[in-house]
Amino acid sequence: MLNLLAFMLRDLLRNRTVLAYAGLLLLLTTGLWWLDPAPDRLALNLVNVTLLFVPLYTVIFTITYFHNSRDFTELLVVLPLPRRAVLLGQAGAVLLSLSGALLLGLGLPLLLLAARLAHAHAGAHRRGAHLGVRGFVLRAGAVRARKNQEHRVGPGHVVYPGHSLRRAGASLGVLV
């Protein structure tokens, strides 16, 4: 099953449609960031676009892929391979390729945004100003910085007052 998964995943990663999907998500995320750099509204816009676009593309691509690879699937079923391994290999390859494209298309710009916000926050923190963008990852409310205390932003994410944006940015990359 792993050999079949690796072969199909290699085939899918070379597919122009998956690369176009990653590029479109990258372009969309960068464009939304360029149009509205406020992190709150950017997160809302990305959630809306993701909830609309990702399931639609995933369903269409998966149906088209399985339909176009019908002859190859019939060839694999004739071989002495368990049918479960064939099905799991194909489904796993589609899942991993689309997940990788999603992480590349959404994760890369969001990690750059988190790094930019962390840099801006570090400069403002040295000047004594406060940007007020802590905890925007999950909109968990205001996170107040008290000396030597830790604050919970979301499930399993602990933010220390001195490093809040770096850790929140890492959470954003993992969550989205």
UniProtKB/TrEMBL annotation:
Top-level division of the source organism's lineage: Bacteria
Keyword terms of this UniProt record: Membrane, Transmembrane, Transmembrane helix
Keyword Transmembrane helix annotated: yes
Transmembrane domains' residue ranges: 18-35, 42-67, 87-113
Protein name: ABC transporter permease
Protein's organism: Hymenobacter humi
The organism's taxonomic lineage, starting at the top: Bacteria, Pseudomonadati, Bacteroidota, Cytophagia, Cytophagales
